[in-house]
Amino acid sequence: MENNSTLQSWLEEEAAIRANLAATGVASREHLREHTGQDFLNGINSGKTPPPPIAELMGFMMISADNGLAIFQGTPGRQHYNPSGAVHGGYAATLLDTAVGCAIHSTLAAGKGFTTLELKINYIRGMKDKTGPVRAEGKVITAGKQVAVAEGRIVDANGKLYAHATTTCLIFDI
Predict the structure, then answer these.
(1) Are 162 and 155 in contact (CB under 8 A)?
(2) Could you tell me the pTM of the whole model?
(3) What CATH class does 4-173 carry?
(4) Burial of 112 by CB count in 10 Å (0-12 exposed, 13-18 middle, 19+ buried)?
(5) Cα dihedral angle (19, 20, 23, 29), rounded to 10 degrees?
(6) Integer distance in angstroms from the first to the last C-alpha of the chain?
(7) CB neighbours (10 Å) of residue 18?
(8) Any idea where the domains of the chain sit in the sequence?
(9) For residues 14 and 61, is the Cβ–Cβ distance under 8 A?
(10) Is the pLDDT of residue 155 over 60?
(11) SS3 125
(12) Are 106 and 45 in contact (CB under 8 A)?
């Protein structure tokens, strides 16, 4: 049985955020250098920073990012299918990589950037175009001066787990 109140809340939250988004684009190095990770990510949902083109391509968006926690939402569809009729594992991988990476990004000081060194994913169950919206939640486990580690999960509105991941990221000066 679907949790209709959670689903409705997710859809309303997504619609409210979408109303503020700027056109997709890529931030300049100067913009990245001048803002903390938290300010940069908050700028996306406030319309001050363009959301990345990958979010438009894959059909997902950031719901929130706050000091070590990032939540993204997407609705898998037929455009994400592989030849065997299920959502390609790359959809979950991209959604999780984004959530765990942005969780780390939210902890960074101005002038710092990151890149993924390693991403490990466990697929629990497949997604279909009938799955409905899913959320990927990334949480930082530890963040040092050069390396950060985070974990993430993809769940539906009923709390059903589809995949989970861990990442290790390199932190560097921009």
Answers:
(1) yes
(2) 0.96
(3) alpha beta
(4) middle
(5) -160
(6) 48
(7) 11
(8) 4-173
(9) yes
(10) yes
(11) coil
(12) no
